[in-house]
Amino acid sequence: MRTIIVLLLGLLGAGTVAAQDRRNEQFYYPGSFNFQFLKRYPSGARLFNAFDYGHAVLYETLLTAPPARLDSVLAKEYRFLTTDLLVRPPRFQVAEETIEPKYAKLAWRAKQMFDWAHLLHRQIYDVYADERIPAAEKVRLVERITDYYLTRRDVAFTAVPKSMALMDEQPFSQVFRKNHVHFNGLIWAYHWLQVGLYEPLLTYDTPAAKQAGVDTTVGRFWAMVRQPETYPAVMPMTATIAPRFSAAHPRAAVIFDNLHMMHDIISDILRSPLIPASGKRAAIYAQLAEFRDPSQQTMTMDEWWMMGEMMGGIGLMGGPALGVAAPRDSTAMPMPHQH
């Protein structure tokens, strides 16, 4: 067998092999808290499975649809997502490479980076959903999980906030959001919910109050979907939408903002006519390297905290997760509406 492998490598050529991406996948940080969010809050957790599909089908469509049909194909996918898949979301996490086979082949490293960051998202939900863990220990555990995430330097987004110019001021920037307003708004609504759902879990003390808070936040997401004109008009910033979470876990909050910026950047690269098909992989990989680098194109943490106001405030980002805005040092919040 070893001889056969050596012969195959020789036939393929060293340059071809060097160009291939390794899978190098890594599993969850171990703990009994894993999957508690799905168990206790399925209305939120299953939506995330649908979000995974939505991201995957968007990238595959942008990469493969003929330019003359792109608008109609995206409109069809948008209708499917908003009237079918989100209404009846998958029970289990989607294997995205089955939805985006050509994109995954083109940019496997991008898929790995997104998967690894989404795993961090899910594990933090799990920790805060687990009623067996004392509140103080939850904070420490999330920091350990964030440490674990950052050990994968090959696929981890830096925990240093990157400049918004990377998303808004490159030659290819904003082409997707300008040409596909509703689909872009839906993606930003995804990101609003992904960070917004931390707030009820950190704000309330009892399972019943947390459930009511999650219901409120999920309900606000659905209100956006039903009225697309209320979608976020600018990218939701974690510090603005989830101030309690961001104060408790600033590294994770920064990672998620960097992740969400990269989602926009890849949509723009795939959509941009300025980048030929032959150059899209290189363009994506250059951006991935930028977002792993903590030394360039960054902002200070103080600038990051103020960015939400500089971008127009919470009203342009979809509104507060719980229906009322809270400063990051607030210790008291009104109870959400009961359902």
Description:
The relative contact order is 0.13. The longest helix has 23 residues, at 42-64. This protein has helices spanning 2-12, 14-18, 36-40, 42-64, 70-85, 101-106, 108-129, 135-150, 165-168, 175-179, 181-196, 198-203, 207-226, 238-241, 243-248, 250-271, 280-292, 301-310. The chain contains 18 helices and no strands. It has 339 residues and is mainly α. The termini are far apart. The chain is globular. It has one domain.
Secondary structure elements and their pairing?
Blueprint (H helix, E strand, L loop, with lengths): L1 H11 L1 H5 L17 H5 L1 H23 L5 H16 L15 H6 L1 H22 L5 H16 L14 H4 L6 H5 L1 H16 L1 H6 L3 H20 L11 H4 L1 H6 L1 H22 L8 H13 L8 H10 L29
Q: What distinguishing features does this structure have?
A:
339 residues, mainly alpha, 18 helices, disordered C terminus
Could you spell the SSE succession in H and E letters?
HHHHHHHHHHHHHHHHHH
Sheet with most strands: none
Tally of individual helices: 18
| N-C termini distance | 62 Å
Mean pLDDT score, rounded? 89
Gross geometry: globular
Number of E-type strands: 0
Q: How many domains comprise the coordinates?
A: 1
Q: What is the alpha-carbon Rg in Å?
A: 20 Å
Strand coverage percent: under 5%
The percent of residues in helical segments reads 55-70%
Task: Quickly give the structural class.
Answer: mainly alpha
Identify low-pLDDT runs.
Answer: 1-19, 327-339
